[in-house]
Amino acid sequence: MLFKKYHIVIFKNPSENARKFQIRGWLFISIFALIAGLVGGNIMLWKYYENYSGLESNLAHAEKAVQEQKAQLLSLSQKMMNISQDLDRVRNFDSKLRVMINLDQENVQSVTPKGGSTEPNFSNNYLPLYRQELLVRKMHDFLAQLSTEAKLEEVKQQEIIHSMRSRQDALDSTPSIWPVEGWVTSPFGWRSSPFTGKREYHKGLDISCPLGTPIYAPAQGTISFVGLSGGYGRLIKINHGANLSTRYGHLKMAAVKKGQVVTRGELIGYAGSTGRSTGPHLHYEVRLGGVPVSPLRYILN
Known about the structure:
The chain is about 40% helix and about 25% strand. By secondary structure, it is of the alpha+beta class. The strands form 3 sheets. Strands 3, 6, 7, 8, 9, 10, 11, 12, 13 and 14 form a 10-stranded antiparallel beta sheet that branches.
């Protein structure tokens, strides 16, 4: 059958001669096999295409889910950073209170979070590794550690509150608020002199404010001096007891007299530019045992 000859006759129309073709049997079988192979190949390709389309759709959904997880993890890490920063502020507040009421700080233990980095690039340390499960575990550990720190801080605050209640008089006499509304133009410490340009030690804070701005006592005390004093111009001194005193320089006018007892928040004078001054401002000093110290170490608000 494979080697038999087959004849194909083609008639165009009755008036023309017919055309005859001679084909062997194996050629028919080859053509049939080729067609069957093409049909089978197309069916396989179609099934492969459908499978590929499904995988592509699943991959797109998976990538979307991963992106959403990354966004959630980034949001969670940012919240953790905010909590950590809040705890840092609480610690600073704690330290200021302890300085103000002379509470022992040697027993205060510093706890370092064990859950991971607390730097701003916290999420960058993990997300590029695409190790989501590890990051989640780290975050849970970190949150647990923050919770522990928060409880420790609560214990410390209770200790401070108890100490403050027993030292109410000392607290009332500790300068803990800003004496005037304004902005600091020259901090405490070494600076370049605005008059000579040379390096000098600034004994207080220069708080710039409009002429005549009210100045308030930052704590309870007794007025020990009111008058002109060289470069300070018009000056007020308040003795708060326990070797602690404050000074207010360059005033336009004083509203208190020597020997007068004032309380925290009471008006004592008005800002000016008397003495050695470049413009309206308050020069505010805090002195401990007669030695100038940074007023910011006492200010709580």
